[in-house]
Write a structure and sequence with these properties.
The protein has 302 residues and is an alpha+beta fold. Helix content is 33%, strand content 14%. It is built from eleven helices and nine strands. The chain has a four-stranded mixed beta sheet with strand order 1-9-6-2. Strands 3-8-7 form a three-stranded antiparallel beta sheet. The protein has a two-stranded antiparallel ribbon with strand order 4-5. Helix 6 packs across helix 9.
Length: 302
C-alpha cells in the first residue's frame, strides 16, 4: 500500500505565492503569458489551500470507503444517483450529463469539477469570505488553479453520445478516460449562475497510469529524476482527475497541457476581496444571482 501524502505535499512544490492584489494579478498574467493560445485555459479557486482537488462524489466515496474510490465505485454511485433522480424524483426528461450538472449546481455529489473561463471569478472563489452560523470565519490561505487543456481533445456536446440517457463514460466508451487529462464541458445556461460565473466543468476518470506513466507525476520541478515521482495511489490522495503540474515561471513544452497553482496568502484575501468588489463588481449577489443564492448568502448582509 502506498504511503499517505497530503494535498499540500503534492501541490506546494509547484505553487507560486500571491501576498496581495498586485502579485495575484501579476501571477495570473504570468500563467496566461506562457500558456499556448491554441489551448483552453480554465480556472478554479478554493478557499483552503490544504484541500485536495476532489470532486464532491470522489470526496464522499473516500469518506465512505476510507480510501480513494475506484472508477468502478464512482460509476456504481453515479448509476444509483441516476436511478433515484429518474425513479423517485421523475427527472426522466434529462440526459445523464444534464442530471449531473443540475445535481452539481444544487450541491449534490458528482464527478464534475467546477471551473471558470474568468480568472478573476476563480480568484473571488479563492478569497471568498466564509461564514459559520452567520459569523465570518478567519481567513486562511487559499489556492487558485489554472488548467491548460490538451489540443485535439473534443469538448463534450449534448449529442447522441454525451447527451444520451446512459452515462457516456462507462468502460470502453472513451479512449484514455483515466490516463489522460479531463475533458472540458461548457453546459447550457440551466440557471443564472452559469453565465454569471462564466462556468464550465472538468469531466474525467479516476487517475491511473500506463506502465512507466508515473513520470507525469514528478514530486517537484527540476530534471525529473532527482526528486522522483509520486506513485499513483499517492496521486489519488491529492486529485480526482489526471494532471500534469508545471510552475508558472517555466514555459511548458509545446503541446503539453499543464496545471498551474497559486497560493493566496490569508493576509491578502481581504484586500483582494475589496478590489474585486469595488473595481470589478464581483460579490455574492453577482456570483450567486438566483434566489437560492440570496437565501444562502444574502442573510449575511444583515
Amino acid at each position: 500500500m502506498d504511503s499517505e501524502i497530503t494535498a499540500e505535499q503534492f501541490f506546494s512544490p509547484w505553487e507560486s505565492v500571491a501576498s496581495d492584489w498586485i502579485s495575484s494579478r501579476d501571477k495570473i498574467e504570468e500563467i496566461i503569458g506562457i500558456s499556448s493560445s491554441s489551448q483552453a485555459l480554465v480556472w478554479r479557486g478554493m478557499p483552503d489551500a490544504s484541500n485536495a482537488l476532489f470532486s464532491s462524489l470522489y470526496r464522499r466515496l473516500l469518506a465512505k470507503y476510507g480510501a480513494p474510490p475506484t472508477e468502478t465505485q464512482m460509476l456504481s454511485a453515479e448509476n444509483r444517483i441516476l436511478e433515484a433522480a429518474r425513479g423517485s424524483w421523475r427527472f426522466d426528461n434529462l440526459s445523464a450529463l444534464e442530471i449531473s450538472a443540475q445535481v452539481q449546481h444544487y450541491g449534490g455529489p458528482t464527478r464534475l469539477l467546477d471551473v471558470t473561463y474568468n480568472p478573476l471569478i476563480a480568484l473571488w472563489f479563492a478569497v471568498e469570505q466564509k461564514f459559520d452560523r452567520g459569523l465570518p470565519i478567519p481567513d486562511i490561505d487559499g489556492r487558485l488553479f489554472a488548467f491548460a487543456l490538451g489540443e485535439g481533445r473534443a469538448e463534450p456536446q449534448l449529442d447522441e453520445k454525451w447527451g444520451g440517457y446512459e452515462i457516456p463514460w462507462k468502460p470502453g466508451e472513451i479512449k484514455d478516460w483515466t490516463t489522460e487529462l479531463p475533458l472540458l464541458w461548457r453546459p447550457p445556461e440551466y440557471n443564472p449562475r452559469i453565465s454569471a460565473q462564466n462556468a464550465a466543468f472538468l469531466v474525467g476518470g479516476v487517475p491511473s497510469v500506463r506502465n512507466g506513466g508515473n513520470a507525469r507525476y514528478r514530486k517537484g520541478p527540476g530534471d525529473g529524476t532527482s526528486k522522483g515521482a509520486w506513485r499513483i495511489g499517492q496521486v489519488k490522495q491529492a486529485t480526482s482527475v489526471t494532471l500534469f503540474m508545471n510552475t508558472s515561471d517555466r514555459k511548458p513544452q509545446n503541446r503539453s497541457a499543464p496545471t498551474f497553482t497559486i497560493r493566496i496568502a490569508a493576509k491578502a484575501k481581504a484586500p483582494i476581496r475589496k478590489v474585486l468588489e469595488h473595481h470589478f463588481g464581483y460579490n455574492s449577489a453577482s456570483i450567486y444571482p438566483d434566489l437560492y443564492g440570496f437565501a444562502r448568502y444574502g442573510s449575511f448582509e444583515f
